[in-house]
Design goal:
The protein has 260 residues and is an alpha+beta fold. It is built from seven helices and ten strands.
């Protein structure tokens, strides 16, 4: 038996109401929470591992680019910074500049992003080169309106006071590793207060590329040349035929060495 609904209090609507759910938060609602967004745009893409990296056009310190065309047939690392002439960002870009030859060996292109214009970027690069005693040679995207940062969800929701003079949220320290098919393979996100580890970024590139080439997975703290793991989808006998010696710790944990 279906009972009639009980009488509702005077504070509750007694007739159904059509509620419009916005596809994205409005700038005014975000301003009330402490920061503004760029020009309203459609809902941000879901940046899941394996999804296509959103394409965009932008101005950089090395000219205008179409992001996917710029990647071409190489790997790419897109990494963001809150602002120019900030201490942590300066040390990071100097470290990436010094390590660029290692990324080049791995067919990886570097591209930075910071929430300032090109004039500021050009001056900042001179500072970076002087402080780090290097020569920064990869492009930095000018993103003063945070259009790319918003597209890639590089905005910190935990620190609503992290805004510029116009009330626009600064970016956080995001790292995205993108493969030649333009798929997102790995992401890292750091708060503005925490500098990144460039050696770890290089290490995960080695892991991803080794996995693609050899059909293996890598254990904790793995480095090139160390033992790798046979994935569960490959039987032990099949692994011996493919890799040679197999060190079986457990039926589900088997190690092989695929060299460098």
């Amino acid at each position: 038996m279906i009972r009639p609904a009980s009488r509702l209090s005077s504070n509750v609507l007694t007739h159904p109401t059509r509620i419009r759910i916005p596809r994205y938060a409005s700038p005014s609602s975000l301003l009330r929470r402490g920061f503004a967004t760029p020009t309203p745009q459609p809902e941000q893409p879901r940046l899941r591992l394996g999804s296509l990296a959103p394409n965009f056009k932008a101005s950089t310190t090395q000219g205008d680019i179409d992001f996917h065309q710029w990647i071409g047939d190489k790997w790419a690392i897109l990494f963001s910074h809150p602002a120019d002439f900030t201490p942590v960002c300066t040390t990071e870009l100097g470290a990436f500049a010094k390590l660029k030859p290692e990324f080049d060996k791995r067919n990886v292109k570097l591209i930075g992003l910071s929430a300032n214009d090109l004039t500021s970027h050009d001056k900042w690069i001179k500072d970076i080169d002087d402080i780090a005693q290097t020569s920064l040679s990869f492009p930095i995207i000018a993103d003063p309106k945070r259009n790319v940062a918003w597209l890639y969800d590089m905005v910190d929701a935990q620190d609503m006071t992290n805004v510029d003079q116009k009330g626009i949220a600064f970016t956080i320290r995001s790292v995205l590793v993108i493969d030649p098919s333009k798929k997102i393979r790995l992401t890292m996100m750091y708060p503005a207060s925490c500098g990144r580890n460039t050696s770890e970024v290089l290490r995960v590139v080695d892991s991803l590329q080794t996995g693609d080439r050899k059909g293996v997975t890598t254990p904790i703290d793995w480095r090139v040349g160390e033992d790798v793991i046979v994935p569960p989808t490959v039987g032990t006998e099949e692994a011996r035929g493919k890799f040679g010696d197999v060190r079986e710790v457990r039926p589900y944990l088997r190690f092989v060495n695929v060299g460098k």
